[in-house]
Amino acid sequence: MYLSNLKQSISDPVKSKINWARIEEADNFAKTVKLFRQGKYDEDSFRRFRLQHGAYGTRMTGDYAMVRIKLPAGEIYPNQIEKISQLSEQYSIGSAHFSTRENLQLHWVILEDVSEIFRGLAEVGLTSREACGNSVRNVMCSPLSGVCPDEKFDSTPYALATARFFLRNPMAQNLPRKFKFNFTCCEKHGMVRIVDVGLIPQIRNIDGTTQKGFKIFLGGGLGNKSYVGHQLEDFTPEEDLLYTSIAVMRIFDRLGDRKNLARNRMRYLVNDMGWEKFQNLVFKERAIVRATQSVITQLDVDHTTNEVKRPIRISDESGSDTIPDGYARWLKTNTVKQTQPDYRSVFITLEAGDITSSQLNSLADVIRNFSSEGKARSGFNQNVALRYVHEDDLPRLYSKLLEVGLAKSGALTMTAPIGCSGTTSCNLALTNSHRLAKEIQRKFLELKLDEDDDLSDASIKISGCPNSCGQHGIATLGFFGGGGRVGKDMYANYQMSIGGRSDGDTMLGQTLLRVPAKRVIPVILKIIDIFKENKKPDDTLKTWIHRVVNGNEDSNIKSIGDIKKIIEPLTIPPTIEEDPDFYLDYGSDTSYHTKTGKGECAA
User: Fold this and answer.
1) Residue 367: what are its φ and ψ, rounded to 5°?
2) Three-state DSSP state, 14
3) 460-463 and 477-486 as β-strands: parallel, antiparallel, unpaired?
4) Backbone dihedral region of 593: left (phi > 0), alpha (psi from -120 to 50 degrees) or beta?
């Protein structure tokens, strides 16, 4: 990006160059809902149609839907945020939810109102088309792409071009299952090995000529059974990016298991076939694609540089330069220096991805007044990134965020856990993972654990069932929900794993033990105590656990079995007479029981 000293006026707002929407889809959806209500459209066909348009089923009811709004590459603009705020107030529950896949979700929308949301989204160029269903889902890109000091080049234009190419593309409308792309900036800031196609930008020099390309990983993914992806080749030139993507998708479309819905993600195909055989098949298919595709079949990558203009600064009439309490803590745990001098990226902490409609409006104002690129990026961790914030403006930004309740610290630390929607809305959930994530965050911020450098790079991720929407498999401390029982009395329970990670040393966490929901916080605190007692001077919790799970630790804790022995007493359930609250899940005042509906991930 080109840095300019020009001031950006409030009357010259930045808007998206790409219109992802088609207004006729709203009309078509409204007509189809009417036919469905009249019994002229069978339930299975309507479910597929609904999902293809980004309306997901809601827990235990067919009258409501969750609308999943795609934010390709995570980009979102102030006018779009304001429109979503308006739609949330009119048709949803007055709040929205940022997901781990850079979508923005509106829950509990009456089915007949979904088309009205589609119309509103179309006004600002947004769509939910193919945000669900057996298609190419939202194409993700690291929120630090373009500003990361360790990246070779900005992969954002390639992510946007990939999203444009496959959106509504006939070849991607009826895949065996959903198909996901993740672009990133570097090994540290992406999750390229746990997705169908993951891409890291690379550069190589050939006879003095610089060539752009990618390191591509295939066949990863999280779920009931998770796999780490495989690197396709040392270097894939940028001109082969689309050919490779088409080749992989065609193989999956042809050979994916359409009969066994539990095993029809591409990672199962790669595992069953064997990596070497699948890899060779990709090379052969890519050669065919390259030889047979029309010359007009190419990615439309926009290499136009975006001019960065620092917003006009309105002077404080009071003349006060007082920095509010908590600023230093927030600066340390919520901001990162960019490769561009004097600028930082600011991550806004949300509670498990939730934000009110009023806060959305405030967020739009904050972007206009503080981001020199005039837009925001959704992150991988249910948060929002404001990039190109000048360092001189950071105290004022913090003060503004304080006013609107968006100034929580710890966005880039262990104190900001990921929690899927859980039993608040999901048909498959067994526990309220969403509320548990909030409880952990509130407690850990109260204890000021975000200020502990030893815990800064660790992560906590929670799913309400084994299906990994909360990405528990790649967490330092991961949890997925289930049920436990003492006699006839049930309680919310979590399977805990440790040692997962998604960087250059990506690995899946190893199972530790089952932990009752009301004992998760004490167990995490106990593990921190064990770490503190056995760490080496330069250890972080993440690096120490990595050594333990790989059998390389030489302290009193030699294995995860040693950790298990210490924390097992904390997981013993009391009787319901001894502790009635133990048998209530977080956010519930009624006795716990497991109840699920029909999932739609494979509909």
Assistant:
1) -60, -45
2) coil
3) parallel
4) beta
Question: At residue 225, what is the residue type?
Answer: K
Half-sphere exposure of 415 (CA within 13 A, CB side): 24
Q: Which amino acid is at 102?
A: E
**Residue where the block lists tokens 């039993």:** 423
With bands split at pLDDT 50, 70 and 90, how would you rate the model's confidence at 77? very high
Q: Which of helix, strand or coil describes residue 183?
A: strand
Q: What is the percentage of the chain residues whose pLDDT exceeds 70? A: 96
Mean pLDDT (whole number) for 527-544:
97
Strands across the sheet with 384-390, in order? 75-76, 376-378, 384-390, 343-348, 335-337
CA dihedral 185, 190, 191, 193 (to 10 degrees): 40
Confidence of residue 29 (pLDDT cuts 50, 70, 90): very high
Say how far apart CA 69 and CA 84 lie, in whole Å: 9
| CA separation for the pair 219, 271 (Å, rounded) | 8
Sole residue written with tokens 């991720």: 461
What pLDDT sits at residue 599? 61
Q: State yes or no: pLDDT of 4 exceeds 60.
A: no
Report the C-alpha gap between 539 and 531 in whole angstroms: 9
* Cβ within 8 Å of residue 525, ≥6 positions away: none
Tell me, what DSSP letter sits at residue 474?
A: G
Residue 1 pLDDT more than 60? no
89 and 365 in contact (C-beta within 8 Å)?
Answer: no
Residues 6 or more apart whose Cβ sits within 8 Å of residue 541: 414, 454, 455, 457, 458, 476, 527, 528, 531
Query: pLDDT digit string (tens) for 580-590?
Result: 999 999 999 88
CB atoms within 10 A of CB 216: 24
Which tokens sit at 275? 């990596």
DSSP 8-state assignment for residue 479 = E
In eight-state DSSP terms, residue 455 is: G
pLDDT, residue 354, reads 97
Under 8 Å between Cβ of 55 and 36: no
CB atoms inside a 10 Å sphere around CB 472: 33
Helix (H, G, I), strand (E, B) or coil at 546: helix
Distance, CA of 496 to CA of 512 (rounded, Å): 6
Around 460, how many Cα atoms within 13 Å sit in the side-chain half-sphere?
Answer: 30
pLDDT number for residue 425: 87
Provide CB contacts within 8 A for 207, sequence distance 6+. Answer: none
Evaluate whether 256 touches 196 at the Cβ level (below 8 Å).
no
pTM higher than 0.85 for the full model? yes
DSSP 235-290: -EEGGGHHHHHHHHHHHHHHHS-SS-GGG-SHHHHHHHH-HHHHHHHHHHHHHHHH
**pLDDT given for residue 601 in this prediction:** 58
Residues present in the chain in total = 603
> In terms of Cα–Cα distance, which of 388, 256, 239 is closest to 301?
239
Element (H, E) at 515: strand 510-516
DSSP 221: B
Report d(CA 467, CA 455) in Å as an integer.
27
pLDDT digits (tens, 9 = 90+) for 423-480: 998 888 999 999 999 999 999 999 999 999 999 999 999 999 999 999 999 999 999 9
Q: Which helix (H) or strand (E) holds 498?
A: strand 489-498
